[in-house]
Amino acid sequence: MRSHSHPFRCYKKPWVLYLLGLLLLLLSWREMASPSSIFIDEVGRKVTFPGPPKRIISLAPNITEILFALGMDEAIVGVTLNCNYPEKAKEKVAVGSYIRVDFERILSLKPDLVIATGAGNTRDMVNRLERLGIPTYVIFPKKFDDVLQSILHLGQLLRREEKALSIIQEMKERKQKVIEKTKSLPRPRVFLQIGESPMVTVGKGSFADDLIRLAGGENIAGEERQMYPRFGREEVLRRSPEVIIISTMNPKGDYDRMISEWNRWKTIYAVKQGRIHLIHSDLIDRPSPRMIDGLEEMARLIHQGPLLRPPEKESK
Amino acid sequence: MKRVTLKKVIVISSLLTLLLLLIVLFSLTVGSVKIKPQQTITIFLHSLMELGEKARDAEEMIILSLRLPRVLLAGLVGAGLSMAGVIFQVLLRNPLADPYILGVSSGSAVGTILAILLGLSTASFGLPVASFTGALLTIGIVFYFGRQNGKIHPNTLLLAGVVTGSFLSAVILFLLSLSQKEELHTILFWLMGDFSFSNFISFRIIFPYILFGFIFLYSRSRHYNLLLLGEEGAIQMGLSVERLKLLSYLSASLITAASVSVCGLIGFVGLIVPHGARTLFGADHRLLLPSSALIGASFLILSDTLARTLLAPVELPVGVITAAFGGPFFIYLLRRRKGVKTL
Amino acid sequence: MIEVQSIYFRYHQDWVLQDISFKIERGGFVGMIGPNGSGKTTLLKILYRLLSPQKGQVLFEDKPLQKMSRSEIAKKIAVVAQENYPLFPFRVEEVVLMGRSPYLGSLLFEGKKDLEIAQRAMEWTEILPLRERYLDELSGGERKRVFIARALAQEPEMILLDEPTANLDIHHQLDFLNLILNLNREKGLTIILASHDLNLTSEFCDRLILLQKGRIYCVGSPEEVITPENIEKVYGCKVWIDRNPFSQSPRVNFIVKENQP
Predict the structure, then answer these.
(1) Is residue A36 very low, low, confident or very high in pLDDT (cuts 50, 70, 90)?
(2) Does the pLDDT value for residue B11 go beyond 90?
(3) Which of A257, B90, B98, C67 falls between 20 and 30 A from B310, CA-CA?
(4) Does residue A4 have a pLDDT over 50?
(5) Can you give chain C as a three-state secondary structure string?
(6) Which CATH number fits domain B6-338: 1.10.3470.10, 3.10.180.10, 3.60.10.10, 2.120.10.80?
């Protein structure tokens, strides 16, 4: 290497500049020639992929449900082990759980788009997919209305905007109906239990909390800053809910056991009044089109039966 | 078995290296996605020739971007932990010592967990750095408390290490209780040993530590033989024991820190590989060090391959596999010792 | 050859050795005797610089021990002391070869010369047939000879021995000391031997150093040192001294209480 020549001396020769300019022009043509789409996903990342996606991998059960709802089931080449709805989803190739995926399997499926969720998949996973050169779109719904947005975004991404809009429209209308129906009803204090030992409930910022509010209830853990705070039974006793809703994967099978568990605590208002209900977990913690079913079910459970307020509200 | 000569070392090392290469090839071929061995070899050779060119098809990507860095890293870490294990066993005069006994691993874990809680991803550069920093701080603390009058007493050092390790474990549990669901998973897998986020950058970072560590430790291998006679015996043979101990502890600790920083806490490797190598090849460190390193590399590569293929697409943490091997082996060791004269 | 000048040593608060001075010429065969706790072992450890005195100095051939490097010391002074069992088993040949360590420096493998020297050391101590055996398979006497062989492999000018005949039966004790004597007479090695056994040291040593509570009580030939007065003063018991009929060395006879005059 000649140590005396300045590394940038070539710029002094004009024809090199012209050549570079031409090269850049050609490159930009290449870019323009292929109709690649550029999108910004819900966490602000730029996602590029050439042409409409034909081989999609979903990394979460709610994404799978949305994709099926949009009619993209043919294009889905990979799902997670947890994707159980609709039935057809179970037939697809599983690439792992939504916490850990098998990258080899993902690569071998040759996807042109992977859809992940910020609520569930790890940032790490998304970074690695990026590193491997696989376009990844991340949705990040946090409230009920966010879910509608995500459905719209995915609809736009996949050129199914019309279908997306119709789904959203229906969900909006049904939500409105619920709000109307419950507007004039009293707002009972609700305790939603999503875990057994330890007993976990839903706090501010979680989907279920949003659903409770929309369904016309007052979440007794609604002020907790943790999304999934742990409550002891004494805490529940102290806050004295009027309705207890238990989220479980097997509402029919668990019913008797859950009821008998709570029946030992007769001082809790909800227990005394026999207001313990079970709801299927998938309806209320999965940000998908079925969430509206969850909302309706929640409203039905909260407002059913006679509601008798305790004579004096004890200080908290 | 006769005594160890240079020729013996070269012959056995070559055989073990051959074994290692076969295991590397095997591991590159095997995975949750089936690829034919011939294809693997072609891709591998291809990559050596066309360095830098981006891989195009899926098979190439799988082998070069996913499996190769894992295999290389697992080999390096396996060698590193095994060597560190040999050294700790001779320095502490304790055949049950392993590289984590002085608490370096706990310090590393604290660094890593803090980094993950602060949002660093496992694929980033920052995580191994945080991990290594935690380890270095721990080494500093343990050595500060472990030295008396400028001398290192094995028992004092051991005590300092164990106490520091326990304290840091409490810190780890505390940090875990603060973690959210997603972080917990990543942290848990790291704590159990995880090669799934291996990349070439990590390899390049820790390679010098392992290499120079080996060179230093091997240059002292005859001296470690002398140490087996006890410190007094070694001094009688003209060895400057204190300096050797200090430098050796530091080297072994650095090797451990480097290894842990890229893949988490993988247990049992540093404990059982030295014993296995010693059973096969004897206690002479001139042969024990290279053979432990090579066997350790092979062992960990195989364990990692098993971890990612046994229940595909679900991946087991590699620490589970090494423990599955390690547990029974440990029991076997304990039973065997009953027949041997007590020290 | 080795000169000790007014050394004082302590481990913690109390002085274990005080004002120790003596000189040993090349080729001497010196015994260090004294009751338990008199400081024999400590003094020996100072002679090869395992320990360093707080006051005073040791000169080896007019050079201060402090200024010599460990390997320099190991090339001149070899030690046969209470041995730890090695952590993992080694063979006789390997143990003897360890004696070549001070000459190998940073070399990893022994050369031809080292192997020859080790061989000769094993021949001299008559353990050559045992070379492939593991150390823990040998009897006490055989093991001691291995350590002497190792000491010889160091090609030293002086050998220090600490209670070498403890736990050996009479036959082996004599064998051992004869071996040491030959080393002294034939090879000219200076020997310093610390022992409890008054009669054996009297028999084999040219000079004795009697220590009491960290101080030198007296130095001299066995006849000068082993006297009833000295023994009673230092050991606190009455003994009868006569002469070994064959060598004329002083011989200590016990007086059991009921037989005391």
Answers:
(1) low
(2) yes
(3) B98
(4) no
(5) CEEEEEEEEECCCCEEEEEEEEEECCCCEEEEECCCCCCHHHHHHHHCCCCCCCEEEEEECCEEHHHCCHHHHHHHEEEECCCCCCCCCCEHHHHHHHCCHHHHCCCCCCCHHHHHHHHHHHHHCCCHHHCCCEHHHCCHHHHHHHHHHHHHHCCCCEEEEECCCCCCCHHHHHHHHHHHHHHHHHHCCEEEEECCCHHHHHHHCCEEEEEECCEEEEEECHHHHCCHHHHHHHHCCCEEEEECCCCCCEEEEECCHHHCC
(6) 1.10.3470.10
